[in-house]
Design goal:
This protein is of the alpha/beta class. It is built from 10 helices and 14 strands. Strands 6-7-8-3-9-10 form a 6-stranded mixed β-sheet.
Length: 299
């Protein structure tokens, strides 16, 4: 288990992280979210033991994280961190040796992952010759080649097309099933909703939301109703509780202030012709994030 307990980090007088606490269990994908400048990168660096917390403790399996423990951690950074003049094989040997792996095991793992990502022919290619998407694959392989107990993924799908996003998703889920602890960070909230049962949203170093995603969503009474029926925006806007109506192709999205208005809107739609769809949905994580972080930035 990874434990981050009451962690605060100062840079001189600036408080980058303010009393942050969370736990990540084996086989769990945990979302650590926030806008730029929220404190995520500082938190990752403290977990990696690249920075010392000013206050609080960080432990992995009840042990303080030092250079022995960091061999059990993989980190896919948002920024490119590849050595462009090396070949893929040379790079992996270099990174694998940094993680105390034998060269023989590095080559076995490398070839397994190259095959998985359909880039076996790139083993002896220089990194600088690869496309952006294939560089991302290599960077991902470098973060998992040593079979880490804890894996930090910061914007893992950057530069990938939808087909390769699906491959990454499959691999991440397999790592989870095999017991890897994963911290997942992305500005693409739909990706976070795919993976994370638990999460924290940070803003200016502070935790503004935390817990299980399903419980967080229940805190909000706003709902969206997706409708396919013969009606109009103007008629729907007349109904009590309706805050906005958006036409999306052949579907109408009705935003309501509170779930208590659902029944009356349902009755109205039942009186319309050609009713094909009436679906009530909770706020998406994207909408919750925008609501919480956006409102605080406006103040």
């Amino acid at each position: 288990m990874l434990k981050v307990e009451n962690v605060t980090k100062y840079y001189d007088d600036f408080k980058a992280v303010d009393n942050l606490s969370f736990e990540v269990n084996e086989g769990e994908i945990f979302g650590l979210l926030g806008a730029n400048g929220a404190g995520k990168t500082t938190t990752f660096r403290m977990i990696m033991n690249l920075l010392e917390p000013s206050e609080g403790t960080i432990t992995l399996d009840d042990k303080k994280i030092d250079y022995n423990i960091t061999d059990k951690i993989g980190f896919l950074t948002e920024e490119r961190s590849l050595l462009l003049k090396l070949t893929v094989k040379e790079l992996m040997i270099y990174y694998g040796r940094l993680k105390s792996m034998d060269e023989k095991d590095i080559i076995i793992e490398l070839r397994k992952w190259l095959k998985r990502f359909n880039i076996e022919e790139y083993e002896n290619k220089k990194i600088k010759e690869l496309s952006k998407g294939n560089k991302q694959k290599i960077q991902f392989i470098s973060s998992i080649i040593h079979k880490p107990k804890l894996l930090i993924l910061d914007e893992p799908f950057s530069g990938l097309d939808p087909i390769n996003v699906d491959i990454f998703i499959d691999v991440i889920n397999e790592l989870k099933e095999n017991g890897t602890m994963i911290i997942f960070s992305s500005h693409q909230m739909n990706h976070v909703e795919l993976f994370c049962e638990k999460l924290i949203i940070m803003d200016h170093g502070k935790t503004i939301l935390s817990g299980y995603l399903k419980d967080i969503k229940k805190r909000y009474d706003e709902r969206k109703i997706l409708i396919k029926a013969d009606t109009s925006k103007s008629e729907l806007m007349k109904l009590d509780g309706v805050s906005n109506v958006v036409i999306k192709g052949d579907e109408i999205e009705v935003k309501i202030e509170d779930k208590k208005y659902v029944n009356e809107i349902f009755k109205y739609v039942c009186g319309c012709k050609n009713v094909i769809k009436f679906e009530v949905v909770e706020l998406s994580l994207h909408e919750i994030f925008t609501k919480e972080v956006g409102e605080k930035h406006e103040k």
